[in-house]
Design goal:
Elements (H helix, E strand, L loop, with lengths): L1 H12 L4 H16 L3 H7 L1 H11 L3 E4 L4 E2 L15 E5 L21 E5 L6 H6 L9 E5 L6 H5 L9 E5 L7 H11 L4 E3 L1 H5 L1
Parallel strand pairs: 3-4, 4-5, 5-6, 6-7
Antiparallel strand pairs: 1-2, 1-3
Length: 197
């Protein structure tokens, strides 16, 4: 009986608390997203960026129009990868840790961040790494994005289309849209109804 109680106490000491569990998954997410400078140097920014997106459950479109959804279908490394044109991070685990991958992707025109619980204000700030090329960004159904995060998008001076909707943590979406329209005069700031029509 005594051994059982000691064993139970011992096990309880090592039961992770909610914060500990969250820290563990945050660490795992960081490891799957964090850029590897040596890898980028070896395979180039477009291939490394595609690997990041696909490894985390996203999709990519190359400049030649080919779409890829499976990491295992990436071309062999010895083949030169085409330039990256689009990233679709819908329902993926890409997070702010990986956004430095955008640096050097000179033809990356479009990013969709839809229904992604890992996308937060830090990720929107991270879009700045792709500011030279990005012309289209969609942020929708991302529960961890707030008003201040949306305002980070003013760094994307070449943006032509910005789609924002279903952002439950944004208190004043209309106000944010007006602010972004004034800061990005060349950009159309749209909502869900505009996309469907």
């Amino acid at each position: 009986m005594q051994r059982y109680i000691v064993g139970l106490r011992h096990r309880q000491l090592f039961t992770p608390q909610i914060g500990q569990s969250r820290s563990f998954w945050e660490y795992v997410n960081m490891m799957f997203n964090k850029p590897d400078p040596e890898r980028i140097k070896t395979v180039g920014p477009d291939r490394a960026c595609a690997e990041w997106v696909l490894r985390n459950g996203g999709k990519v479109t190359w400049a030649d129009g080919k779409k890829l959804t499976d990491y295992n279908l990436l071309p062999p490394e010895e083949h030169k990868s085409p330039k990256l044109l689009e990233i679709d991070g819908t329902d993926s685990s890409i997070s702010h840790y990986g956004f430095p991958h955008l640096h050097g992707c000179t033809m990356l025109k479009k990013i969709i961040l839809h229904e992604n619980k890992y996308i937060d204000n830090r990720a929107l700030k991270g879009l700045e790494y792709g500011k030279e090329a990005l012309g289209f960004v969609q942020v929708s159904k991302c529960v961890n994005v707030t008003d201040s995060g949306l305002k980070e998008l003013t760094a994307l001076k070449n943006l032509e289309t910005l789609i924002l909707y279903d952002l439950i943590s944004v208190k004043d979406l209309q106000g944010c849209k007006q602010y972004l329209s004034s800061e990005l005069p060349k950009c159309k700031v749209l909502g869900e109804l505009d996309v469907q029509t």
